[in-house]
Protein 1
Amino acid sequence: MVNTRTTDYWSQFIVDYSGGGDFFIANAYGKSAAQLSYDRVLFGSALQVVENIKLINNIIVVDLPVSAFQGLSLSPDDRAFYQVIADNQHLTGYEDLSSAFRPKKRIRRVDGPYEAEYFDGVYSAEKVRFIKLSRKLIEGELQVGVVVYLAQTLQSRNEMAHDISVKALQLVSVIFTIALSVCYVFIWFIVRPIRRLNTVLSERAPTDLTPIDTDAPKEISELLRTINHFMMQLQNTLDRLKHFTSETAHQVRTPLAGILAQSQNALMENDKPKRHSQITQVIDSCESLSRTVDQLLNQALLAHRFKSKALEKVWLGALIKEVSRDQVLTALQQKVELAYIGPNDDCQIVGDTVALKKMLQNIIENAIKYSPKQGVVEITLIIEKNREINDIRPRYGHS
Amino acid sequence: MRLLVIEDDAVLGNAICDHYRKLGHGIDHVVRGDEANSILRHQNYDLIILDLNLPEMSGSRILQNLRIRKDNTPVLILTARAQIEDCINLLDLGADDYLTKPFDFGELDARCRALLRRYQGNAQTALMFGRLAIDFNACSVSLDGEEIQFKRREYRLLEIFSKHLGRVLSKEELINHLYGFDEFPSENAIETYVARVRKK
């Protein structure tokens, strides 16, 4: 079934892509968490170095405590490098460290009176994390700018990032699996009544349009109501069609039977006046049948036009006058007078000219047909606010 | 035979009446359903030819009323619908047969004859009384194998007698079986016909 396949495809899509997404997010999270904690340690060490540079009697004294590198020694496999520069003069540490400090994208963090810059670089053929911390030493009128560079290799940092990622991923996977299972169970519960409905519908005879009577949960009952309503409308349409067909059969077959029977009679009749009357009846019947067939064809034409034609603006008054003029002769032949009694002002409506013409023609024809001889059929257009009424009244009696 | 035609189409109704009158049957033509219903309460017929779409009262309703009154007069329905289920409905309502419009008089005659035979408890198409033989299909009478010429009314009279064997029929009964409401026969006319039939 197409639907099931689509659902499968979507669930596969969700599992695949959300799985990939999870991995990506967990990785980024682990990396940033490790970065943050190791940067803290790096900053602490650099701070201790910078705090222990002093200006005593205009001489810069650098007294690096062991504790300054204790934090860094927490990662046993990593190496650390440092350099202290005062007024662009190398003081102590690795002399070429500052030249490796070429930040492409630097991150500045201001912490108290210190401004720290971090960046990922390469030193002695290894990837390292740099920190640059500056400070101004002031004694009397003497000002010395001191800069401390500190770099650490990334092994522990990467290990921690990996560790955090894996743990986060494990957690996410567990939650994801649980959520997915819950979703599946829910979907199964929701789809179950639809499947039942499907079975009921597929087991039905094609002519059975009675309402479906199956207990459905609230979510499906709306759908069920719509299906039942639709089937009821279909049944009504079929009933109308059936009625129309049988009515048409009656209208066509009865005069046809009359024509056949009376012509058979005429064929056998020796009495001339009697035969004449029978043949006249046959002709009358033919004419009446021809009118009926015309009307049925018109009806079919209208039904077709209603479905296929776009509507246009039509002057209703002018159209009524035109149709009335066409019918005058037919009316006179039946000794009925046709009168259009105004008004002269016209109104425009949106409709299909041919369809409207046929309908007006039908109304007027019927009015003529059922009027007594010497009668008058009056045609009026009454224009009311927002609606137009075409009033056709046969006026009985003599004109 | 006395027939009632209930048909709202004037041409078809007239055609059927013309046809059966010519064959020597007594026939009445009614257009409206309610009228037919009230006539059937008072008058017995040998056969009813019934249309379904009628003004004032539908043909199926007339048929229902007829059967409720335990009237078993054979009814032949003229219908425009030829679907099997419609026909089943009609037969279930109590119709004896149906004919789909348009139809041929030959078929209508044959079906009417068959209905009449069955109704009168005689499914045979010919009868023999000693030397006299009647062929109902060909409407011919022969004595000792020699055909006798009968006028139509005379033949119908003989037909009525043959269908009521072993019974004495009054003139009134004979008139009822032979003539429609539009005809005004005198009892003398019946006597003349009976005398002619006897002579032959």
Protein 2
Amino acid sequence: MSTTRQLLNSGQVARFVTHGFLRLDGVVPPTMNEEALGVFAAGLPAVPYGTPLPEAFPHGSFARRLVTLPAVAGALESLVGPEPTVDHHFVHTRQPHEGSAQALHADAVIDLRFDAFDVQLMYYPHDVTEDMGGTLLVPGSHLRRTNESDTGRYQNLLGQIRLACPAGTVLLLHHGIWHGGRRNDSDAVRYMYKIRLNPTVPQIRLWHTTDLDDAAVREELARRFPWYEEAAGRLEIHNRIRVWRALTGDPTFDVDHWVTRITNRPAQRSRA
Amino acid sequence: MTAVRQQVLVLYLNNSALDSPVVGWACYDGTGRTRPTTGDSDQPPYQTGVAALADGWRLFQAAQLIPPYPGTEHETSFLKHEFFFEKLVSS
């Protein structure tokens, strides 16, 4: 993608696995942010599902320049690998004083994968202030098995993020994260451009792994969020360990013995 | 004659006890005076379910405690400890 590779480190990938998203504030230059609104107004060309990224976004196109910005390209390569395909892309708008927010939802349908994930890039070409209906994100919700807007009853969860960000901010989301466009109480239209990317290679150690054994990585993966119920919060860490094992290819990784304890079957070993 | 309308408060608690901390919430207002919606507040209206009772909310439904389906014991899904409250108010 880019000749200047800015791959993520293990701490950043662990943060993505724990939170379900990464936030890159102001990484898109002002000239592109100014250009974006015109590009969106003119309409984006349709992309057939599963088109290789270079075919979907030709050289020189706005989308190609966006995903090849060094910080964006490095993060994408670290998460979905070097040759993802484009699932779809779309410009979302929240109109001024729109009546209500989107229901809290996860995109697509319930997704059972532990050893693969899609990334959704969200790009905000202008400043998003508190009252503009910036995306609502629920950190750590991405491994919950719920289907689309069945979570619509949940209006607010403790520790939720009501996005406010500078122009040129990019979010990279795990496909399963609960999110929604909030009600826009301002006088300005709020834009967000989304690209969903599918991996084409095994998502194993695609990032800079020299810090893989740092204590900070394990601490990140042990994080709890304020909205977690006590009991389900333990299961979240258990499930996160399974994801980390898949991404690192290390079947022995654990946090506080959560998985090792309940997979210890001496009787099965003695029969082998 | 005054019409009576229902206000509904849904609280999600940290465990199945009504006096455990609130981790999520939703409000619906049958009077039309307010328009609660998704992501409109970062602060819960009450710290616990019992605090809502103390403020006059009437509990009318609590989530049942149902064991996980076999084979799905480690999966997480919807919030489990959901409590519905109401107030009847003059509109």
Protein 3
Amino acid sequence: MDERLDRAPCGYMTINSQGIISYVNQTFLDMGGYSRDDLMNHHIESIMSMANKFLFHTYFYPFIQLYGHVDEMYLTLKSSKGESIPVLLNGKSYEGNEAEKIECVFVKMTRRIDYEKEIRNAKREIEEAYRIKDEALEKLEALHRDVERKQEELMRLNAKLESLAVTDTLTGLKNRRYFIEKLDSHIDHFFLSKTPFSLLIMDIDHFKKVNDTYGHLTGDQVLREFARILEANSKESDTVARYGGEEFIILLPEMNEMQSKQAAERLRKIVEEAPWSSCPVTISVGAATFTEHDTNISILAKADEALYTSKSNGRNRVTHSADLDGSS
Amino acid sequence: MENILVRNNVKVFGQGEKTIVFGHGFGCDQNMWRFVAPQFEKEYRVVLFDYVGSGKSDLTAYSYERYGTIEGYVKDLLEVMEALNAGKVIFVGHSISSMIGMMASIQRPEYFECLIMVGPSPRYLNDESGYYGGFEREDVEELLDMMEMNFVGWASYLAPLALNNPDRPLLTKELETSFCSTDPAVTRKFAEVTFFSDHREDLAKAETPSLILQCSEDSIVPVGVGKYLESHLKNSTFRLMEAKGHYPHLSHPEETVRLIKEYLSSFKEDYVD
């Protein structure tokens, strides 16, 4: 039996509870290139590096003492030539004749530990790859948030620009361009539904005189006040715009000739009676109602002609193009 | 309060008025005191606990920020004592725990009657000034590597994945007879905190009386380190044990208990005077 143990295919050793070697088999000696005298009665730590001693102290002794055995502990031992020999150690304590003994079996694991280290390195690489991926993702998300924010900013600016493009800066009313677009869409609507609509062109009487007498700042103030009056006295569906200079225009959906005349007269009267801050102001109005023979140009021309008539008839009055002699 | 007792797996037993607290060292847990602690239960209230990250502590309480330095462990000790309302205690610390106890006593001298240091070291690494701590930096690197290869799940445990899945169930398998039951990354960090710490500068700040128990053939902490501590620690008593190794409380519990009790009785007489 002893002969077979001596040549068993694993290193075998008996130590006492202090770690002194009392038996070692030939396989173990061959593994480390030691002679029996090198190891017998020596401390097992004499063939360990500092790190292995610590590991042995921290785990092997305490666990043997607490639980009686240690399984599959990985250690490296020093060979007689100073090389490292990776081994797997199983230990078990038993009560010998006089004192506690610990039986130890060592299996060399040179190739196995290389594999395991390869796996560990692969694991580290994967961890690193995950970390990099998470970082990249984080950056990408930040970038995405940035793009979204800029997009929103852009849309906001666009909306602002669009509104600026159709707004008259002095009065805050819509400008001529916007009005023409609205007029065109009402004309389209008219030919689909035959719903009537009218428009009024209004001109401030003697505006040049206001400018000349009180200055341009007052002139501008009058324009703004007139714009506020128009806004305050028009419906949501009406389109009020500054047509140019002291000319304003208002599109009245669903209004026929008579209704448009009433609306125009009402506005004329409101302006006349309004509490103007600098000087009394009146307006002349030219009204026109769209007919199926009209175009966007013809209806504006008709309203203009009616306005001209109001002016030449003494101002501060309303004329509808349908009432003009020439039109019929 | 309650959750600190759970967090640190605190166990209290014994009938004394005075409290004796045992702190385990690196790589182990309160089980290491099983041959020593019961010897004190007739005269003392005995307190055992696991530092967060060790033994059966609550691993979810672990953070690299708090436990990246010894300060986190010092907090654990102080919080356990506060949760127990322990009063002035006798603290027994093994290895790094001796330094944890000492640092705690510097912060809160009123909590400590005395410190029993088993195999203490203020600095494990050798240094150019001629200080011989026993370890070269390469030894520690090798040790961390060896430890990693010994842990259960070193290959399957993907740290970033675990971080991404906080619900990942902790190792539930009972691994009582294995030293690999704790989280390898946490244990590795504790090893770094232990081996790269340097408390030589702190020794002068400690006032609490202390007993230094040094093993005669401690292959981890050279005898010179115990002597170094004796000469730099005020009110310290140095005892060289017959015990060999670094775990006298496991390998030579009788001697360990005897020396602690001798010190405590002499200390008591001094104290009464």
